[in-house]
Protein: Iron-sulfur cluster carrier protein
Organism: Sphingorhabdus lutea
Amino acid sequence: MTKITHITKLAEDIAPGRTSGMRLKENILSFILDIGGMDRTARETMEEKLRHNLGAVDEVDEIKIIQTSEKRPITIIAVGSGKGGVGKSTLSANLAIALKRAGKNVGMVDADIYGPSQPRLLNMEDEKPKAEDKKLIPVMNDFGIPMLSMGQLAKPGQAIAWRGPMAGNALHQLIDAHWGDTDLLIVDLPPGTGDVQLSMVQKHKPDAALIISTPQDLALIDAARAINFFDAAKVPIIGLVENMAGYLCPHCGEVSDPFGKGGAEAAADKMQLPFLGRIPLDMSIRMASDDGTPPALEDGPIGKGFAAIAHKVTTWLDEKNK
């Protein structure tokens, strides 16, 4: 084994996939270190370990590290609805939890600039992100999911009255952050197909979109608009989820359908899109969400419903990556 081959292997063991361009000339070792997505502490720790171990190699008297901030790829999934009041944010939070439990390095962006909900849903209302190198550092919650939201940056109860460019700039700061080893980013979009959605597809085009709707016709009309929006932007649609699908009365046990039944599944079939599953209208979801303890954390019927949707999402992503 040549000296430079040995050094390259040693560097790869310390910093997998982050070193390249190894060169040893006149006892000076130089190489490129990719620091994309790393915060300062992690970067300094890695540099120190590289210098200590590589500097112990014979014929290496000096080490020059050339840093690059080249970004590591993150798969972005946009969660949209076309209209408000369909439980999109609740489903986004629980989807992130279910994906995390399935082994994904998942992060959450609350892109609903004007009405952020994720800080409450993921129990992060009192946490404020810091910044480094002019970029935000996501806050890690108790569930192991890094998150950024305007709800963490604005004062509690503060009305955010921004025009399109300001909202678009805010979205850019939330997405273009120090996401570390996150490889899957869930973006909870605001209702509709307005400025934030346009900024999203222009600056941070999602790899895929997931559409949420209740079974009622009015919600499905708006969901179709959201689907058309992503189709026009050439963003693949993973599928539709039917939320608030059926209500089981805790007193009499009778099942009713206040928002109709099977509308989203029928719409998915008509538009030749996958139907990912349905989540019922259940008091426990509302109570757990208000308490900041997403029901996807549990293995009960509701948790299994979210887990089944997450499984279909990961299967879709695996097929796409092939």
Summary: The first strand starts at residue 19 and ends at 25. The mean pLDDT is 87. Residues 75-321 form a domain with the Rossmann fold fold (CATH 3.40.50.300). The first helix runs from residue 3 to 14.
